Amino acid sequence: MATQNTNLYSDEKIGQGNHIDEALSDHSKDAPDSDPEFTPEEQRKIRHRVDRRLISTCGILYCISLMDRTNLSAAAIAGMTVELELKGFRYSIITLVFFTTYVIFQPPATVLCRKIGPRPFLATIVVLWGAVMIGMGFPKVWTTMIPLRMILGIFEAGFFPGCVYLISTWYRRYDLQKRYSVFYLIGCLASACSGILAFGLMQMSGVGGYLGWSWIFIIEGILTCILGVIGYFTLVDFPDRAHKTALGFLNERECALVIRQINKDRDDAAVEPFSLKKWAAAGLDLKIWGFALIFFCLTTVTYAIAYFLPIILRESMGYSVGASQCLVAPPYAFAAIVMFGTAWLADKYHVRGPVLIGNAVMGLIGLPIMGFHSNAGVRYFGVFLVTAGSNANIPCCMAYQANNIRGQWKRAFCSATLVGFGGIGGIAGSLVFRSQDAPGYRPGIYAAIACNALLIVIVVINTIYFRSQNSKAARGEKVLEGQVGFRYTY
């Protein structure tokens, strides 16, 4: 693929002869797997090493992040609603205040992740929100939960966009969705197992004078702190400096290989000096807001399911408390299968839009079944379709965005914007299933249907636009994203 270097470092290499610097300026026309220093088999081994270290660590930490963020519903039916007198909108207020700080602090947090480095930055905020989580086990009045949830939002704000950004810097465009899927799949494992774990922790009720809901927060907070400390030693840095900060991971030559492959794919491996003007200028690209709106639609549904599924199973479908906790797991296990299967197809055939639409249609089929059928078992089947359709689209949307932008700081801006709109979706998801709408929760069902329909409309519009722009680029009428040979993925 022919490329045109637009990086500010292209004419100013530091440390001549250094493998990393040479890789940052490499713009050969070799095929991505053709490299003078490594055989294809050696390259595959290096990619697998990156997978094991980067995706596994980020995935496990995201697992605990998602568990800490969504364990309110488990605590609610484990006694928190009664002890803290969560009447009316109080439960919804506690869930949504988290997202106010979570959205506000994401853009600066993503910049800090790049400037400080993902290893110290991500590990530190994991430990800090773990400490807050422990504190959430001790309130005696419901209002105390509000500032604790807001502080939790501040510390979690940098984690998900930081991971999305970090992963995107390590892989070529059509290697991304499978990796994002595994990363997010581990998070689904958290959602699947959190109910079972919560049910086990509920059995500690009375220990130390605290009810079971308190122990859910305390024990999970302690686990978070432990994993945060471990994460400091296992997280990796960005490719241009990973050989210096992650001992035993990749050497300088191997990091240089990764950078060469990124440059051959999209030519944005090197980092430009930070400029607030250039970083913010990415906001003028309308398609970025289209990606963000898609993510908003997805997270509105995924958070609504995460926060309210145990409650819906209990109040709307008539299952016991224990069954409601444990029946959360199977739909998320099914979602994991759908997620990885669609990711494999999307990367293999270099498509994103058809997968997004297909999963949204699955949700549109499942929502009426979940909301309107008279039989509880059939409604539970609808939960499978809704959970799978929305969650499987999360990594697809992340890859959709990552495939269609270039530039390190634009990538940082986009990650923050995408996940920021995801946080706004979290606010919406906290409110769509209102207690006064029980047991049918029909307004929430209608809102989720509208989100899936809007997603389909945006993807169709993007597809028409991307096809038009690719045709113009093929005719030599314009250069896309500042790189000759770049094509949009639709």
UniProtKB/TrEMBL annotation:
Keywords: Membrane, Transmembrane, Transmembrane helix, Transport. GO terms for cellular component: membrane. Residues 10-32 have a biased composition (Basic and acidic residues). It comes from the Eukaryota. It is found in: Membrane. It is a multi-pass membrane protein. The keyword Ligase does not apply. The chain crosses the membrane at residues 54-77, 89-109, 121-138, 150-170, 182-201, 213-235, 288-309, 329-346, 353-372, 378-400, 412-433, 445-466. This is Major facilitator superfamily (MFS) profile domain-containing protein. Residues 1-43 are annotated as: Disordered. Pfam families: MFS_1. Gene3D superfamilies: MFS general substrate transporter like domains. Residues 54-471 form the Major facilitator superfamily (MFS) profile domain. One of its GO terms (molecular function) is transmembrane transporter activity.
